[in-house]
Amino acid sequence: MSFLLGAMRKHIAGQKHLSDSKEVLNVKTPDEVAIPVIAMGKVDLEILVKEGDAVKVGTLLAQRTDHFATPIYSSVSGSVKSFEKRFHSSGAKNVPHIVIENDHQYTSESMPALDYRTATKDEIVDFIKDRGIVGCGGAGFPTFAKYNSVQAADVLIINAVECEPYLTTDYRTLLEHLDDLVEGTLALTKAANATRTMVAIKEDKKELIGRLKEAFTSYQNVEVKAVPNVYPMGWERTLVYELLKKRYDKLPIEVGAIVNNSTTAIALAQAMKTGTPIVEKIVTVSGEGIKNPQNVRVRVGTPISAVLEACGGANQEQTFVIFGGPMMGKTILKDNYVINSSSNSITVLPFEEVDPMNCFRCGRCNDHCPANILPVEIQDAEKAKDLDRLVKLEAMSCIECGLCTYVCPSKIDVTENVRRAKRALSMRK
Ligand code: SF4
Ligand code: SF4
What we know:
about 425 residues; alpha/beta; Rossmann fold; six-stranded mixed β-sheet; 12 helices; binds iron/sulfur cluster
């Protein structure tokens, strides 16, 4: 299977101004948090606590132990109250959650810090694995898995592009934690054993580009790269092509690259300083349907109803609440979900009645698809339940970027139809 980039790029109104100039607000952690027990879609993890057990911030609650090893830590101190099944932002239903009664003391487990300057490559990778640092892509891909089997990468790319409309998580986190970005980037460069590092950011962020260049001025091997303000420039394949003019089949390491998000670098730096795993997230809460759009700092396991309330709640009776941004996120029922370790945004939009028309084969969805597949053909094959054709059309290559829905003049939710095709193929396996 080979991916190519789509023939067209799309500029989308970013709506970043709604939240990008406001400082991050701390959300009060409620009396109970519910920690999702899921790692890369796997839910039958080893559970290490039982009802009534006392826990601290950083107590290991559960773990996935195979090649995608992921520890799940408590974000508060208190006691284990119960085990519940809930929805998860990945789209999975019936995901086990460990409900912890919060004693509001925030007593922490004592865990060693790490000085990456004296640590070896393997020690840094082990630290990343042990502290459960995962990407922000929704699936929670464990970061160590990008580094542990790579002896030396040609280039490490730190992705601060954040191309999804409304999202300003990376931007605000960078502004407020620039020193941590430098430390995290240098540690990841050592973990990758890379001779070259690029920090990629959109060209319209002029002031931040200047500050980044200044922050990295003493490090000759780190370049700050301004990239075009188009969607989906933050997608790994698009970014690797933009920076290296190289295409790959499955993973960026095939062309010598490792790509990590800037917030992952910052999370690593913070974990190295204190020793504790990441138990808090910075999340953009934005959209025309919320009273006070802003970024919030929130503990993992906090219900999103509490997060929305901290932002003033909805400003109208009927809204869409989307876990993620409007292009790649999923519409949810707000009371069923909690913030998890890979959450980065909640978008609240005014409810809008959509009345789709028939497809008139204009081909715009195909022209804009960055994965260079044919969404309209996939949609037809899905309707016809033709699974063999879906395989030929490489439906699984869809990254769910939402562009096909965005550009469709008939207002057809093409992305949802392609998602359905992917689900049908997954169930056949
Ligand atoms: S969501 Fe649509 S445009 Fe985006 S990758 Fe999938 S098929 Fe292509
Ligand atoms: S963009 Fe919409 S109308 Fe045009 S081919 Fe695709 S699904 Fe059909």
